[in-house]
Structure formats: structure tokens, C-alpha cells
């Protein structure tokens, strides 16, 4: 028996309910974006860098930009962003945006030409954005060659404002680094020897820690380190990636700079008088500037040798600089060198003369530090074609079975490089500095640099006492975790270091969308940097000027820089509109037609349910009558 009344009643109730549910599902507003950009981040695992990238993704979605985030190890990041793919988009095997940084010398404008001038695009510099701004180029050139300090500040102020007007990147903040060190490694002993007091170290830690981070190989004679239980004085560090190059002329990142096996003409040490740093002689005993400032003569030591026993001479310096100035070499130092140096000549074994295109107050910054300008061994490399040096074994391999004796010139000799795991250096007893600055013998027997891309693994090694310090890239990535780690580890001491750097979202200006200045300005106003600094980094970052490539502690920071980027979604949308993107496209209509299928499915579903219920109700009624 079939109960028609029950079937009809259920159908009448079910059909409208199903129609309402299906219509809501079928006409739900789809998520729309104007376009998708790919953000590459050279970090893996959790931490502030990860959270910053996800914050950027969430922020840009508010203005109709979809961001796909790609976390990767530096070994994948550098070839994609800094290599020959720098001018390709993500879809072409390159990149769209990145989380990047530039680090600076605190005394000079060194590298500003290579990083921002149109002549500094890879492989001749670090302008991987592809920024070509004539006004910025001119301001950089004038700032580079002007000796009047007030005038220099004016030119760099113009440069800062040009970055604000036409951003090649969005400067988010200036990093503040928590630098934890195992107490067996007395990192401040050398500063005390140079005249710093404990009180001054407490008040001005940055100049001292900066030298540890950037020149620790040069300062080896001043170190104090407790022996391990086996009696060896071993300094153990962690880097996030293998070096990309061993020859200084090809150095392009902080993973390359801090290797410790090459000597330089001059170095910087913390200066207790200025609370900054100062240049002191190293391979060069002294130097002289001509009256017009366009000729610089260096007089080299006569007791410095390569690690194969061959004397270091002015001819090594001459060959190195001429090689960098050859475009075929593809040295990233080419942009800075070619803008400044006209020629170089060795007069004899100990005298080398630089002829400059224009006088510059920052020339010593060019020959300081273990990157680019450190002399290379002419007697080994002079027969290698310049266009093959980048791939030559001395740049890419280190010691091998075929070439077991790697020749450097610094206090430590590279004896083993197991890629992806570690580099091992042994003190070179014949280095001239042990006698000049110490008692004639090495103060550190061995340095081991472990390669650990994962910040959490690196922190665990530091906590367990397996390593003595972490590369500052790791410290930045793990800045919110390090203070609590130090609190629970009595063998660690924490130093706070205001890094001379900028952290930014880099824009690939070869991308057809990011080449639009208004799109970049929209992104700059859409990212909530205040939240990133206060909530994600928990104060381990400083608010930055929107054009401030170097922080306000830098000696060339201008008096009237641009303000920080204003987080303003409405203004960001205005810039998107100016770029040609209309928000009507993203707004779903208030009412949308319900598809015919909704009615068909509802009626059929209601009738089927009604029939089933009518049949069941009829069977129940029949049983009750029986």
C-alpha cells in the first residue's frame, strides 16, 4: 500500500529546501585575482621568514594579487635569482619576487653602484632586479665621487627618494641580529686588545660584532678560544649553504665572503674613538693618494706568501684587478670596478698603482674585505682563459684527488670540502700575521664550517655545544627562538647586533606585470610591515625608511630620508586602479541567476524522497491495521 498524502507532503517540504541549499552552493562567490605572482624564499622550515612570506601572501590577496610562495634552500635560490636566470620570470625558470637583503659597509657607499646602478646587472654586479633609473644612476655617480660630506648626503638623499618613487624592491625593515656564541670562544678579546673597554662594548656592540661576522679570518691572531677535551683549539661554525665560489672575484653573497683563506690589502677593525670602524694596513703596509685623488699607490709587505710558498707580489694584485675589469670574466665586481678604475699597474714586486676615473672618498672600501678585491695567485691562474675562470676547479671544487693542494693566502688553509656537509680549514703556520700580531704561532688550530640549511637543526647543534657560532643569516631567520635558547643554555652568550643591511621584497622588473611602477607601489602599501616587525620578529627588526638601503646608523645616512611605507589598503587599491586593474572585476553581482540544474535536481530529488517516504509510510500503516 502506498501513502500518497505522506509522499506529497514530504516532496513539498524537500523540494524548496534542496533548492535553497543547492543554489547557495552553486552561486557561491568565486575567489578572483587579477594575477598570480611567485615569491621565492631562501629558507626552509618554520620561523619568522616563513611567517613573513605567508603574511605577504595574505596582505596582497586583499588587493587582488594571488601569491604562490616557494620555500627553497639557497642552493636552489641563488641560481634562479642571482644567476643567469635573473631576468626570467618564474614560469620561465626564474623568479617574480623574492625575500632578499643587501648588506653594506658601515663607512662607505661600497657596492651601491653594483647593486643599483644600471651598469650593475648580473653578471657584472648585483642589480638582479633589472632596475634602470637614470636619476638614481646620476645620484649614485655623484655620491661616489664627491668628497664634500654635506654634498654626498644630498646625493644619497636624492637616491633614497628615487627608490621611494620608483621602487625596485619594497624595503620592509632593517635587521637586528641576536648573535649567540659559545662562551669557549671569546669574541671580544680582540676588541679589548684594540683599546675597547667593557663599558664601551656594552654600549656599542655593533662595530665589534660586525668585525667578527665579516672579518673573523683576518682577526684570527687576536682570538681566544678554549681547547676541546682532546686539546685541539677548534672553532666550529654553521653556514646555511655551501659557498658559491672560492675565488674572491666571484663572491656574490655572505655564504662566500666568510671563508677565511684569502688575505686583502686593508682591513677594518672597531675603532674605540669613533665607536665605528677604521681601516688599517694588512697586505699593504701603507698607501698614498695623489693630490687630485685620482692615483692611489699601495706598498705591499715583502714577507707575505701564498700557501705553496710563492711570494705574494704587486703583480698578483695587478692581474686580479685587470681580470675583474675584463667583461669576459663575468665578475660581479665588474660594475663597481669599471665605474671607478681606469687602469692598474705594478711598478715592482711591492708597489702597485691604481689610476682612477674620478677621485672617490670610498676607494679604500673597494680594496677592503675578502670579496672581489682580495688578490688571486697569478702564477696558478694566469693561463686560464678569463671566461673559464668561473667554472675552474679553484673556484668550484676546492681540494680534490686530482688537485689536493688548494692554494690560498690567509691564516687558514682549506684542506677539505665535502659539499652539503662541511668545510675544514687548518691553521697555516707560515702566515705572516702570526708573527706580526702574536707570538709567532697560530691561536686557532682548525676551523670547521658545517653546512646546515635547516635553522632548527642548526639551533640544536648550538644548544648541544657541537658548534660555537651560527652564520648571521641563520641568526636572522631564527631571531625569535634564539633569546630563549640562550636563557636555558649557560654555555651561550647573546650579543645584539644592528646589522648594516636592508630586508626587502625584491621585484623582477623584467616581469611584464612588475615592470609597472604602480603595481609595485600598490604592493609596497599593501604589506603590513608593522605587524611583521612587532608580531613576527618580536622586535628583532627596526622600522626602515622606504628608501633606506642602509640603516640610520650608517655614516652616509641622509638627513631627510623618505618615511617608512604606509600600510594603506585603500591607497594600494588606488595604485592598482592607476595600473589599469579595475575592482569591478573582482566584485560578484549582488544577485546571481540560479542555474536551471538547481531546479531540476531539487524537483527530482524531492519526488524521489517523497516516493520513498510514501512507500515506507504505506507499509507501516498496513502493518498497524493488521
Q: Could you describe the 3D structure shown?
A:
- By secondary structure, this protein is α+β, with helices and mostly antiparallel strands.
- Strands 1, 2, 3, 4, 18, 19 and 20 form a 7-stranded mixed beta sheet that branches. Strands 14-15-16-7-17 form a 5-stranded mixed beta sheet. A 4-stranded antiparallel beta sheet has the order 10-11-13-12.
- A hairpin with a 5-residue loop joins strand 10 and strand 11.
- The two termini are 13 Å apart.
- About 3% of the residues have low confidence.
Helical percentage: 25-40%
Radius of gyration, rounded? 31 Å
Q: Determine the N-to-C terminus distance.
A: 13 Å
Number of strands: 20
Beta-strand residue fraction:
15-25%
Low-confidence stretches: 22-29, 588-593, 598-602
Topology:
Elements: H1 4-26, E1 35-41, H2 48-61, E2 65-71, H3 74-81, E3 97-103, H4 112-116, H5 134-145, H6 149-165, E4 169-182, E5 185-186, H7 189-193, H8 198-203, H9 205-215, E6 224-225, E7 234-239, H10 254-257, E8 266-271, E9 276-281, E10 284-289, E11 295-300, H11 314-324, H12 334-340, E12 341-348, E13 351-356, H13 363-367, H14 378-381, H15 393-396, E14 412-418, E15 422-427, H16 432-437, E16 446-451, H17 455-463, E17 469-470, H18 472-477, H19 482-487, E18 492-498, E19 501-507, H20 517-526, H21 529-536, E20 541-543, H22 569-578, H23 596-625
Parallel strand pairs: 1-2, 1-3, 7-16, 7-17
Antiparallel strand pairs: 3-19, 4-18, 4-19, 4-20, 5-6, 8-9, 10-11, 11-13, 12-13, 14-15, 15-16
